[in-house]
Structures are given as C-alpha cells and as structure tokens.
Give the backbone structure.
Amino acid sequence: MSRSGRDPWKSAATLRWLVFGLVVAGLAVASLFTAGEIGRSRAIAATESRATDGGTLALAILRGELEKQRALPVILARDPDVRQALTGGSRHGLDLKLEAIAKEARAAVIYLLGPDGVAIAASNWNEPTSFVGNDYSFRDYFRGAVANGAAEQFALGTVSQRPGLYVTRRIEEGGRSLGVIVVKAEFDRVEADWRALGGQTYVVDKRGVVLLSTVEDWRFGVEAPLDPATAAAIRDSLQFGTAPLTLLPLQERGDLVQGAGAFAGRYVRMRQPVATTDWLLEVLQPVDAAITAGRAQSQALVALLLMPGAALAGFALYRRQRNLARQEADARSKAELEDRVAERTAELAGANERLMAEMAKRTRAQERLSNLREELAKANRLATLGQITAGVAHEVNQPLAALRTYAENARAFLKRAEPADADGALVRIVSLTDRIGAITEALRGFARRSKEPLAPVPIGTIIDGALTLLEGPLRQAGVTPLVTVPPEPVHVIARAIELEQVFVNLLRNAIEALMEGGQGGEPALALTVTPKDERVEIAITDRGPGLSEQALAQLFVPFSTSKPKGLGLGLVISQDMIVSFGGTLTATSAPGAGASFVITLERAAA
C-alpha cells in the first residue's frame, strides 16, 4: 500500500495519544488539587481539635487561679486583725500577717486601704516598692468596692509597674465603711503553664485589649482598632499605664488567622468565654506545617492510585491501537474478512439456538414453580381451615357440657316439684345457648379476621363468667379455686367474649391437670389479679403434676399436645387472642411443681 494510504491511520493514532495525555494530565491536576484540599481540611480539623483541648486546659488553669485569689478578700474582710488595724490597732502586726498569707497563697501583694483610699498595711511593707502610704482612691477597684461591696479590675500597678487582677472587698461595721482589703493576683505561673501547652494563648477583655498572654509583647495590645473615646478613657484611667494599645500582628483570613513579623504564618483560633468575667480566652495553634503535611500525604496517596490507573489506561489504549491496526490489516484482505464473518455468523447462530433452548427450559421451570406455589397456598388454606374448625369445636365444648349439667339439674328439680329452681336452671341454659352463639360468631369473625373493636372490660365479671361455665368440672374435681381480686373494679382493654374463652381454656386445663394427680397443698387452684401501673397481670396457678421442659417448649406450637384426645390448639388460640388485645400470655412450670400461666393486659380506665 502507498504511504498516502497509511498516513490517515497514523494521524488518528497520534491524535488519540495526544487526547489521552491531555485527559490524564487534567485528571491528575484535578485529583491532586482535590486531594490537597481534603488534606488541608483534615489538617485544619485536627489542629482545631488540639486547639480546643489546649483551650480547655488553659481555661481550667486560669479559673483555678481566679477562684483561689477571689477567696482571700472574703476571708480577710472578716479577720479581726484587719478590723483592729482599721480601728486603731497594730498595723505592723497586720503587715507581717499579710506577708505570710501572700506567700502561702502565692498572691502578688495584699494590702489594706483606709476609708480615704490610702494603704495602711501591705504584704510588701519591707520592700522598696511598698504600697503603705500610697493613695489608691482614684482606682476603679477601690471605688467599686466602696460603692458595691466588692470589685475586680485588671490593671498595671502604678508602683510595681506589673499587670495583675485587683480583687477587693469592702470592710464595714454597723453600716459604716471602715476600709477596703485588696488582693493583687499576677498570672506569671498561669502564663508559664500555658506555654507548656504549645501555641499561643492569651486573654482579652470585652474591649478587645489583651490582658494575659504567652507572648510578652502582645500584652495590652488590641485585636481591633479602638474608637478614640474608648482609647482616651483607658489612658485617663491609667488602667494600663502608658501602653500604646497597638494592634496585634494578626489578621483573619477566611477560617484561619494570618500572623505577621515574628509570628508569620497561619493559625487556627479557638475562643472560649471565661466564666464569671467579661474576658475571652483565645488559643492560636500554627497550622502551616500540618497543612503542608496533610496535603503532601493526600496527594501522595492519590498519585499512588493514579499511576497504576494511568498505566492501565495507557495499556488499554495501546491494545486498542493494536486492534485497530489489526482490523485495518484485515480490512485489506477481503477473503480473510469473509471467512471471519462466516465463522462469526455460525457462532451467533449456535449461540442463538442455545439461547432459545435456555429460554424454553426457564419457561418450563417457571411454570413448575408457579404450580408449586399454588399447591403450597392450597395446603396453607387447608391447614388454617382445619385449625379454625378444631378451635370452634374446642371452644363450644365447655358451654355444651354446662348445658347438659343444667338440663339434668332442671329435670331433677321438676321431678322434686321445685319449679323455681328448675326455672333458674332453664334460665342458665338459655344464657349458655346465647353464649354458644356468641362464641361461634366470635370464632367465625376471628377466622374472617374481622374482629370487634377493643373496649374496656371488667376483669371481675369475666372471671365470674368463666367460673360459672366450669362449675360442674370444678365440683367434679373437688376443687375450690382461690380468687384474689382488688376490691375496686379493674378494667382491661380486650374483647369480653374472647377473654372469657381464654380463662375457660386455662382453667379447664388446670382442672384436668389436678385430676391427673395434684401435688397437695392449698390452694390447689389460684387465680390472682394484680394491677401494675398501666398494666394488669392475671395469674392462674395450679398444683398439678407440672410440665416437662420439652412439653413447656412446645406449649404454644399448633397441634402439639400431651393429651390423648387433644388437638393442641386451645393454648395457641388463647395466645393469639391475648396478643390481639395487645397483651402477652406466658407459662412457667417444672415437673412436680405445678404450672402457672400469666396474662398481661393493658389497664383501662373504669
């Protein structure tokens, strides 16, 4: 083939490689940028966490020192030596006492001001910078204590030229001010402890003036420019001496703080208010190194992932180029192409036949599955119908037995010419006939899943009805049940007829167990009603032979029974009814220890 015939294919291949290179480069740049931002965010979050932890510790250190120093003026204001010094007693003795207290409490200085604001005793009495004789009536902490009883002021000492917090307490007697006790607290130790935490920690007041700082040059600096009136008021008060109130070398940049000069770099800032003061504690943690490391780590990880990916993509493109070259060569050979087309057609035809066979096979399998599902549904319906039918016979059996008993009684009364008693028996027969109809209707409604609405039911009436139905069996077994109910009426949420059926089932089972062989002792059969807040527990306990562990495990399983003529449905139906009321039915038993069935129902208002 001529060279002109190969040039278009080579041009297309070159273009593909060029596009591939641009896509890989663009993806690499985007991925590395995204990874860098993720690394930056993680580094900032980690540094913020360290700043928060450091701030919490720094705040605890500061508050501990504040509370310790605040207690001193309160105690000293009640000291008799302090009061005597104000009323003409020994002042030198007080100097010595204040000196000892200041050393023990690590207070900078403690001094006593007279009512005119002049210091009359001080812990630094023997130092060149002694406060004794100095007038401090111009200080806000003195004026505040005189006016309000107590005051605090952070200021620069006029004599010592050292900053500290002045905590004051007024001393009075008979409503008359005798003087003011002052404790000055300096925070050198606190700032030293802060430095051990790392980063930069400082405290500002409500005007943004730095009071405490791990950086000495930042003290009495400001976070933001002060308005002229505020700056003038601060200078006039001499609170911070002649401090120039210069701006801190910090500037907020988005979510970070940018430092300048000796503190150049970016920082994470954490702020916490200092309780019981108008101060704000701030912690700066450098973040540049963490951001650089976080970005490098994330980008290195992405690069490690991108390199094999790019290599695989390049290999795939190379394979594609080779395939295209092969196809180009095959296109030049008509005979070879026709052979391959014929071969491919034959393969497709075979695959089509196999597909059709597979589809037919799957269709037959689907039909068999549908038939099996239908048979399973039919079997399920038959099992349910059998359970309900057996339940109807089981539930009607007790009223029928009672009907026979009352009919025989009526016949005996008539033979003895006792029409009144015979009429009473006949009235009970009519009532039981209605009862059978109600049971049949309730069970038929249960089978249709259309139950009557739940309503408050008097539990005492239900128990009386169940015991009435079982008078004959109880008399035959020689059992007198012990019934314990609260004196006041107790109502539960249930359906009256179904709840009575449950009691009949459980009591009948207990009677049969006692007839099989009781364990002796009284009572042989007990029925106890116990209200418990919003629930009511009804326990039916017998002293029969009890149940084995296996029988107890199968107690509520359909068609599982230990009775020769039982269907194994009575307890299953009873439990289903109790659950439909929103309650529970549980059983406990052991061989030779009788059995106890406990019904728990929701309590209703009477």
Summary: The chain is about 55% helix and 20% strand. Confidence is low (pLDDT under 50) at residues 373-391, 445-450. The chain has four domains: 3-65+290-331, 77-188, 199-286, 454-604.
